[in-house]
């Protein structure tokens, strides 16, 4: 448990046992939103009215003895890049302001079918491009633990919503660390599942070969439960893995005895000493619980940043071509079609999105494709090969989630490269398509939380969650 | 600038190249944005030159985490999106269609 707030598992239990109601639980969360949302700005859109109606319907059904699912009455927030039918979905961009999707994302449908109450849509870096939630067209989100600091990003609103007790859990999307890094900076649990484990249908695409949806929660058990609800094959996503989600809630008590935990022999520069001290403490805790620590190498690690910042913008520049002022969103009227496109996109996109579209278009353009995008794809293969070799000698790898604790708002906005370096530990997982999660493990500088990242191979979630549960017990 | 499989990175990026890319990306950038973008892209591409020292000649590119084959569904009729709900989101719907400015006379 990372804070004074009640876990998803406890909420579900209390409602089921009749100790409280879905409506009462919702009102507690809405009260906290009333008290602190102006200061934090976790949400782009609070859905108080529909949430109250849903909670009342769940209470009525439960009273009548009807089953309402494993998350009955749990208030959950969605990152505002997941489609919700008839409810604004902006991606924190002016270009989608006012857009009401005509369909629900698969994850939204699955949460609702499981009885969750959607409380709102959370703020993000525009189109999930950023590491601090300062790139939102609607203003930054602040870290609930210290409002002079960022919550991380791009799913900063989702992390802050859980850390501030605005929702019992939330969903984010992770393209290069956008769930794990804000989870670490806000002191909550964050999971980036194996690519294809959670449907991307209805997730507004940033970089399709890297994007994956996952949960933010207070506890490891809550994260396991949410994974079981949102995961699993979806015929509407052609990259969805055609197999069921392994049971995760069942393995949490199995411990780590005999497990081999990988430790980077060469740690990249730039980590705060307090962050490294917490990582050492995590290794010590796992060793004390019966695991073996194994030194491993990822020789291509330092090239991941380059590979990622060529591949992701390349895919983004293609994905974001759809914002053309024709079918939805903003249009700036102009005399002819081409100038309408250019004027609309210039007015609708923010600086970071424009920068990445430009970088991606350049990396894909004739004459530069082989020198940039083509090479980046080969480096991507190298890191996947590195992981394959490392996992010959270990079951999971432990690293810091972020080299630093939450930094002050405005500190890194002037230099894009400095901001990109926040993602050094999280990017490799996305390039490889593997699983990873961040677990809070004490505090570092300025008493801000430190997250430890557990990296696991593709479909390694059961092992990863066992390690996470052990770290939670030790923290 | 002809494509070549062992092309080196770090070709010098100029304001003209940036303007060309902005046109390809359908982004009307101001003079100030073009200047800033030239500086920032140059800085990034310099950093990205780090992969030039790798010998990648024998490495297979990896575009996706897992091999993906075409995924088909049964050829049966399923409900589509609600037409009115879709059109309600359009900036300029007209007679059940999307109205756009003329493409005549514009550059290609």
UniProtKB/TrEMBL annotation, chain A:
Region (Disordered) location: 133-154
This protein's record includes keyword Plastid: no
Domain Amidase intervals: 25-463
Organism: freshwater metagenome
Enzyme class: ligase
Name under which the protein is recorded: glutaminyl-tRNA synthase (glutamine-hydrolyzing)
This protein's UniProt keywords: ATP-binding, Ligase, Nucleotide-binding, Protein biosynthesis
A GO CC term assigned to this protein in UniProt: mitochondrion
GO annotation terms (biological process): translation
Lineage, uppermost ranks: unclassified sequences, metagenomes, ecological metagenomes
Matches recorded under Gene3D superfamilies: Amidase signature (AS) domain
Pfam family, any one: Amidase
Known catalytic reactions: L-glutamyl-tRNA(Gln) + L-glutamine + ATP + H2O = L-glutaminyl-tRNA(Gln) + L-glutamate + ADP + phosphate + H(+)
PANTHER family, per database record: GLUTAMYL-TRNA(GLN) AMIDOTRANSFERASE SUBUNIT A (PTHR11895:SF151), TRANSAMIDASE (PTHR11895)
Family that this chain belongs to: Belongs to the amidase family. GatA subfamily.
The UniProt record lists the keyword ATP-binding: yes
EC number annotated for this UniProt entry: 6.3.5.7
GO MF annotation terms: ATP binding; glutaminyl-tRNA synthase (glutamine-hydrolyzing) activity
Automatic annotation (TrEMBL), chain B:
SUPFAM superfamilies: Glu-tRNAGln amidotransferase C subunit
Region described as Disordered: 85-108
GO annotation (BP), single: regulation of translational fidelity
InterPro entries listed in its UniProt record: Asp/Glu-ADT_sf_sub_c, GatC
Pfam families noted in UniProt: GatC
Region forming the signal peptide: none
Protein name, entry field: Unannotated protein
Biological source species: freshwater metagenome
Organism placement in taxonomy: unclassified sequences, metagenomes, ecological metagenomes
